[in-house]
Amino acid sequence: MSQPNPYILAADNPSALLTLLRANPAIASEQDDHGYSLLHAAASYGHIDLLRALVKEFGVDVNMLDEDSETCLFVTETVEVAKCLVEELGVDYHRTNDEGLTAQQTVESDGSFPEVALYLRSVTGDSCASMAPIQPADALNPAPPLPPNIQMNIGTMSEQEVTGEVDPEFKRRIDELAAREDFHSEATQNQLRALVMDAIRGADIETGDRDVRQRTE
User: Fold this and answer.
1) Rounded distance, CA 146 to CA 111, Å?
2) Exposed site from 27, 89, 114, 217, fewest CB < 10 Å?
3) Which parts of the chain are ANK repeats (predicted)?
């Protein structure tokens, strides 16, 4: 009889996996061809007891890396698991992956688990304003993360702070979008982004002329 797949057990049946590991402890530290480990699976699927057993009972390195140089903290989806890894099991939350990003930065840029991102930010003490804003968990259409090296500050400016002449038609269009009740909807945000990109490219707001190839609707 063939041995059950430990990664499937890690996702669906952690108790059965623990039984298998106690019969064959060598499996605990194994990794697949992509460096994915049982530790990563346990963290991703939220099995805290399995996480504890892998590290404390079977001696698996909590900082084991996958092929992207990411620990299991990078794939954590709940605050409870993140707390267990950071406060109990001692995962290195300062470690960066192959892209030079920490787990906090990776989770924030993904935007799928804002509570985890907020917890990791509190742990690292990083209150950097350039970080992408954390979307609420129930956001219907969360805005995509900003491109690298781009940050956006939302606020107001006095007339004295404005340098250069503002295109009145551009201002009218911005004001019109801002006044809409569905301003935060995906469709309106897409219109806002398109308008800003047109301005950056040097578009004539009134005529629609651009210094790049014009879009075809």
Assistant:
1) 11
2) 217
3) 34-67
pLDDT tens-digit readout, 21-35: 999 999 999 999 999
Tokens in use for 215? 């879009």
State whether 39 and 102 are in the same domain.
Answer: yes
Residue labelled with tokens 């049946």: 13
* Amino acid code (one letter) for 195: L
Residues (pLDDT < 50) of the chain are 128-137, 139, 159-164, 203-217
pTM over the 0.85 mark: no
What is the chain's percent helix, strand, coil content, to nearest 5? 45, 0, 50
Q: How far is CA 201 from the centre of its chain?
A: 29
Tokens of 183: 């301003």
Judge if 54 and 99 occupy the same domain.
yes
In a domain, 58, yes or no: yes
The answer to whether residue 129 is domain-embedded is no
CATH of the domain at 67: 1.25.40.20
**What value does the mean pLDDT of the chain take?**
79
φ, ψ dihedrals at 160, nearest 5°: -65, -25
Measured distance CA(128)–CA(28) in Å, rounded: 38
